[in-house]
């Protein structure tokens, strides 16, 4: 993997991806942040050596580099998931490449369903902690110790300083921002009523199919990370409605301007 990371890094440097300060991973229905960027370089995932290719139709599949709020940023417009058939090492490979390119901080977004029924569709949740229910670890492979400490401490996986700054920005701009625990499952099927009850019992506030692998690898690489979930549906096991993926995407797009504002203001001030 070390050689692959270097080959990919060298390719991107040749394409103009030079010394990014902040990495951003955009989730389902959350692809408009690049509209705010002065783009200096961009490349489709399927042109990047050793990169997976986004197979989900509503993920754009581009890596973008440019200026945003006075900082050099590298943005994944679309991410990878285990449910697409990729391994945990595939899903997190871009984080390792972004770190090799030079990022010092990572911001992540996703669309999720609420377990905590005080969290309503169209609202945002700052992730304070997570539960990994994906059945594996992106660090569980031979030779991981060559890329960082094998036994990574996860007592505080999300950066307290950046999270506090995001909460302050939300308050200043009157954006409703919950804080809670995100459970990451394999998918792609949605949860049953019994599964929603189980998730509530174990302490989850929201559930989705991404983010946790990337956060684990960011911690492995000592990169401070913050993540925001857009609540796109509500998992009330006593009144569970069928979920339409187009409605989830529409709800994510509706809430996206608030998430973009939070990310932009944070980037400006870090």
Automatic annotation (TrEMBL):
CDD domains: PNP-EcPNPII_like. Pathway: Purine metabolism; purine nucleoside salvage. GO terms for molecular function: purine-nucleoside phosphorylase activity. GO terms for cellular component: cytoplasm. Its EC number is 2.4.2.1. Keywords: Glycosyltransferase, Transferase. PROSITE patterns: PNP_MTAP_2. Belongs to the PNP/MTAP phosphorylase family. Homotrimer. PANTHER family: METHYLTHIOADENOSINE/PURINE NUCLEOSIDE PHOSPHORYLASE (PTHR11904), PURINE NUCLEOSIDE PHOSPHORYLASE-RELATED (PTHR11904:SF9). The purine nucleoside phosphorylases catalyze the phosphorolytic breakdown of the N-glycosidic bond in the beta-(deoxy)ribonucleoside molecules, with the formation of the corresponding free purine bases and pentose-1-phosphate. This is Purine nucleoside phosphorylase. It comes from Gillisia hiemivivida.
């Amino acid at each position: 993997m070390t050689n692959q990371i270097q080959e990919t890094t060298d390719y991107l440097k040749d394409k103009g991806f030079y010394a990014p300060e902040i990495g951003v991973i955009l989730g389902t229905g959350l692809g408009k942040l690049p509209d705010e960027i002065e783009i200096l370089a961009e490349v489709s995932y399927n042109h990047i050596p050793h990169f997976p290719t986004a197979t989900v139709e509503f993920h754009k599949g581009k890596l973008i580099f440019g200026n945003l709020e006075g900082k050099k940023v590298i943005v994944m417009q679309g991410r990878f998931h285990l449910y697409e058939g990729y391994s945990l090492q595939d899903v997190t490979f871009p984080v390792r490449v972004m770190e090799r390119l030079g990022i010092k901080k990572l911001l992540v977004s996703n669309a999720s369903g609420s377990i905590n029924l005080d969290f309503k569709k169209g609202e945002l949740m700052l992730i304070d902690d997570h539960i990994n229910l994906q059945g594996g670890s992106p660090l569980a492979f031979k030779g991981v110790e060559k890329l960082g400490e094998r036994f990574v401490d996860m007592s505080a996986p999300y950066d307290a300083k950046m999270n506090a700054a995001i909460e302050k920005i939300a308050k200043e701009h009157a954006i409703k921002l919950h804080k809670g625990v995100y459970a990451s499952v394999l998918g792609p099927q949605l949860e049953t009523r019994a599964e929603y009850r189980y998730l509530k019992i174990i302490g989850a506030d929201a559930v989705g199919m991404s983010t946790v692998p990337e956060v684990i690898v960011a911690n492995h690489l000592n990169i401070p990370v913050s993540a925001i979930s857009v609540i796109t549906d509500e998992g009330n096991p006593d009144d569970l409605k069928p979920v339409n993926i187009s409605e989830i995407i529409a709800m994510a797009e509706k809430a996206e301007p608030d998430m973009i504002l939070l990310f932009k203001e944070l980037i400006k001030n870090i």
